[in-house]
Amino acid sequence: MTTLQDAVSRLKTEKNAMILAHLYQDLAVQSVADVVGDSFEMARQAALSPADLLIVCGVTFMAESAKILSPDKTVLLPRYDAGCIMADMITPSDVLALRAQYPNAAVMCYVNTSAAVKAVCDVCCTSSSAVKIAKKLDADTIIFVPDRNLGGYVAAQVPEKQFVFFDGCCPIHDDVPLERVHAIRARYPDACLLAHPECKPEVAAAADYVGSTSQMINRVLEGKEQTYIVGTEVTIAELLRERAPEKTIYALSPMMVCSNMRKTTVEDVLHALENEVHLICLSEEEMTGAKASLEKMIELGK
User: Fold this and answer.
1) For residue 78, what pLDDT band results from cuts at 50, 70 and 90?
2) Which of 5, 164, 274, 295 lies at a 20 to 30 A Cα distance from 245?
3) Beta strands in 111-234 (DSSP E)
4) Is there a contact between 226 and 247 (Cβ–Cβ < 8 Å)?
5) How many Å apart are CA 176 and CA 159, to the nearest integer?
């Protein structure tokens, strides 16, 4: 263990802190975390944590979710500038405009949204829980925000309901063209291709398996194929090479890099622990509304 990791470990114990890291974080950051998972697992563990201090290694909306579910805990984001392009695409006024247009619809928001947006929605979801929640939601029409790709994927799995989409996306996933799929399949014809539902519909349709980050990881670890192409942020391919060294893992595209997720370093984690900086603070209105949306996500996502 390095000196840096020793310092992090010591301070975690001294301050009764828990470090939560998203799967897209650098592997060095994941190595000092107590919990590593997708957005749903991070939200769930934040709510269950007995810690007094939560260090959220991810982007802003993840730290906000931890604060909403653990209002009495101190929640820190090691990098204050780690935002989310998708989350910034939508505002509360956008949601309210859709509500006015479709007054009988329920509003389902992807977890990749700000607390202010969650506060004006009925239920939140992650990519791993979206289909299950849509099926359980007591509504015939669902307004899905902000990711049109994930929304379209959910709609295809829940044909008994009508869906209205906001025109947002994750550029890291949406920018991958179908031509890239054809090219890498030609190079590795025996590989199993996995795609995240944030990818374009035609890319997801061309995959052998579509699932959330954690679902893709499990598919590779439990799968019988020898070679896999992973269609999500490239850190997952790196992680899988480490976890399944007997298998051959390729990233769908080397361009699938989330610069915001890559900002956090172990040095940033240590700095946050030492100085308790970049505190997450939300208004009472945001806390109350967003908490209802997140708690319903956890309830329906079981």
Assistant:
1) very high
2) 5
3) 123-125, 141-145, 162-165, 192-195, 209-210, 227-231
4) yes
5) 26
pLDDT of residue 46: 87
Cross-strand bridge partners of residue 147: 168
Cα-to-chain-centroid distance, residue 275: 27
pTM for the structure as a whole: 0.92
In percent, the amount of the chain with pLDDT more than 70 equals 99
Query: How many CB atoms are closer than 10 A to CB 10?
Result: 11
**Residue 288 token pair:** 């109350």
What domains does the chain contain, in order, with CATH numbers? 3-83+261-281 (3.40.50.10800), 87-169+289-300 (3.40.50.10800), 176-251 (3.40.50.10800)
Residue type at position 259 = S
At residue 196's C-alpha, the angle toward residues 192 and 202, to 5°, is 80
